[in-house]
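Fold this sequence, please.
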Amino acid sequence: TPTGKFLNLFTEDVQPKAISENGEWACGAALGESATFGYYDYNVVKWNLKTGTTIYLQESETDMCDAYWISNDGTLVGGSYLNEPAYNLNGKWIALKSPWINLEGGNAVGEVVSITIKDGDTICLGWYYTQTEAVLARWVNGTPDDDFSDYEYSNSYHTKTRINENQSKFHQLKGVSNDGSYILVTLDAIYVPSAGSQNYITTFVQNGDKVQIIEREFDERYEATSFVNNAIMSSNGKWICGDILAFGKEGTDVPAQSYIAFLYDVEKDTLITFDALPSGKMTSATAVDNYGNVYFRSVNGSDPLCKPYIYKNNEYTELENCLLAYSGILAEDIDAIITDEAAGTDEDDLGQVW
């Protein structure tokens, strides 16, 4: 919580993946060992963050499921069930099958990553994918929306972007605004290119029929082949932050390859980049709020705790004082922990704390 109180979510190998907009619920997966088959599988859980209560959503021990979205009252969870896009309503999983999707590259699996209640309709957004191909999907009240397909606009990207035509069928859904109007998509996310390659990731935002590509020439010191490596959308869909994998031009004062934090204003279609914090430490943008304030963590090896920073009103503020205590360890004891356990490394046993 903003007061610095930590809530321990007791599950085995927990992987929280989403929090409700009001901050009262979270969902994710706990990795557990199946007594029946002896393999590890995911058991979906949701947590009431006001009480600390853990609720398991797996209907049987052998059911594979996952969760990526949760409503403000905790009753509705979006994710996957038995490798199919699905949602969980009051503890019961409902799969969303889409027979109209025919993908190459093996059996397709899918996920629901966002749910919007609009004008009385329940709208689910997600995607189906194989190892080589993926397509976005939408369901209205549980029925596939056949008019929603990313094929018609993605095919035209062959002449607009740096995507290789033979490898442009993997469309990864990276984010959706809370009202369902803004969609963040990455093409060819599984084909990470190397310098000199002609196949580069393309990341774009779609709002209705309008599509805005984020990649662009942002600094004359870097090659035009630089691309968005990671992108995160604000909950209102109007801001994107993340990292650009940038290739420095020969003879310039920048590294041949580096990660540069960025902020993208969707409404103005402008890109702001952050080479480093005022301290000179390289940064990684990990979150952006509805007002365009960016939250960073330091990725410099000399900063093992990866101290968080916020960029607001054109100023950086270090949030070290927000870390009050962790597992009974006071903030003033952290220096001793770094000295004893993390000397010469890029991380320590505390992990990243927000």
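Helices lie at 151-154, 334-341. The CA atoms of residues 80 and 86 lie 5 Å apart.
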